[in-house]
Write a structure and sequence with these properties.
By secondary structure, the protein is mainly alpha-helical. 66% of the residues lie in helices and 1% in strands. It has a two-stranded antiparallel ribbon with strand order 1-2. A hairpin with a 3-residue loop joins strand 1 (6-7) and strand 2. 19% of the residues are buried.
Length: 348
């Protein structure tokens, strides 16, 4: 009988012939059977040792993700590098942010410094020729001394005129320089021989800017002056305060160097320009009267042709007053008044 022995089906044992060596085979088989147990043990031990000797070292031990120690170390280095980079970026970001904050703070500081410098510049008093005309105005119209006016800085004069313009807009009173002179006279008593004036103070305390369609006593003095200078009262009464106010403001904008009386004349020109009937008597033919002046009464032709309605009205108004006083008279009273007004108007 032949015996085939295999070790885990991987290591075949030679086939033995009983006839040749029965005892040996038997012994050998027995021997081999005992040995096989040890061989198996040895082989198992060898496999274990081999596995141990071939297993990764501590540096190459697998982790739960199947990576070796070296790989973990590399990953750790990479993670450290990333962390370092991240920290570096964060640090850089913080540094950039701090830098930007510092720059912003510096800019704000520079702005504040600039504002302070501007305030310092504004606080510095200057006395330049740019405000020479303003100083002349103080002396001429306010009757302040030149020494006083020379001590008024550019900044002081600018503020006074700015405040006066705002007050003019609020009250509707046209002459800005009157407000300046009134203010200076109140701040520096006895420096002016003319200001402060009660009339200007009344305007400051009581006047308000006019609205279209208003008829008040605001311009009562000016209206009376208009009539005395040739406007027909009945027609003037139809002109509202806003029209009169705008006329005075336009007059001032064209020439700021006049006194009250001068502005009355300029305002009348503007009002008559826009409202021609304000100076016309209903029952008087002005063109025919002008023609009679040069053709019948001996007045110069160029004078007669240019004589205004207002002047004719003034002549007739005065003639009427004379008629009331004396009780007699004719057209000659009006002609005499014209000649008094313009002595060189007649042909000699």
């Amino acid at each position: 009988e032949n015996y085939d022995l295999y070790l885990y089906n991987y290591y075949p044992i030679r086939k033995w012939d009983r006839e040749q060596n029965v005892v040996l085979i038997t012994t050998t088989i027995i021997y081999e059977e005992n040995i096989m147990k040890k061989v198996i043990q040895i082989l198992v031990l060898a496999l274990v040792l081999s596995a141990c000797s071939n297993s990764p070292s501590d540096n190459n031990v697998s982790n739960e993700n199947g990576k070796t120690g070296n790989q973990i170390e590399e990953l750790s280095k990479e993670d450290n590098k990333k962390d370092s980079t991240s920290v570096s970026k964060e640090n850089n970001s913080v540094e950039i942010s701090e830098k930007e904050d510092k720059e912003k703070s510096n800019k704000e500081s520079n702005k504040d410094d600039s504002k302070n410098d501007n305030r310092k510049e504004e606080s510095k008093e200057t006395f330049t020729d740019a405000y020479l005309e303003h100083r002349k105005t103080v002396v001429k119209y306010g009757e302040f001394s030149k020494e006083f006016a020379d001590k008024l800085s550019d900044q002081k004069l600018r503020k006074e005129f700015d405040d006066a313009k705002a007050l003019s807009e609020k009250t509707g009173y046209w002459d800005v320089k009157d407000f300046v002179l009134q203010s200076l006279a109140k701040q520096y008593p006895n420096e002016s021989k003319k200001f402060p004036l009660d009339s200007i103070q009344y305007v400051i305390d009581n006047w308000q800017k006019s609205n279209s369609g208003e008829f008040t006593d605001k311009f009562s003095d000016e209206r009376q002056a208009f009539v005395e200078r040739g406007f027909v009262k009945e027609n003037l009464d139809k002109i509202d305060d806003k029209i009169i106010e705008d006329a005075f403001k336009e007059a001032y904008s064209k020439d700021g160097s006049l006194y009250w009386s001068g502005y009355v004349d300029k305002a009348m020109d503007i009002i008559e320009r826009d409202n021609p009937n304000v100076s016309k008597l209903q029952d008087l033919d002005y063109d025919r009267f002008r023609s009679d002046l040069k053709n019948l009464y001996g007045f110069k032709a160029d004078f007669s042709d240019n004589l205004s309605n207002r002047d004719i009205n003034i002549a007739f108004a005065r003639a009427e007053e004379k008629l009331k006083e004396t009780g007699f008279g004719d057209i000659g009273l009006a002609l005499n008044e014209i000649e008094k007004m313009y002595p060189d108007s007649k042909v000699k």
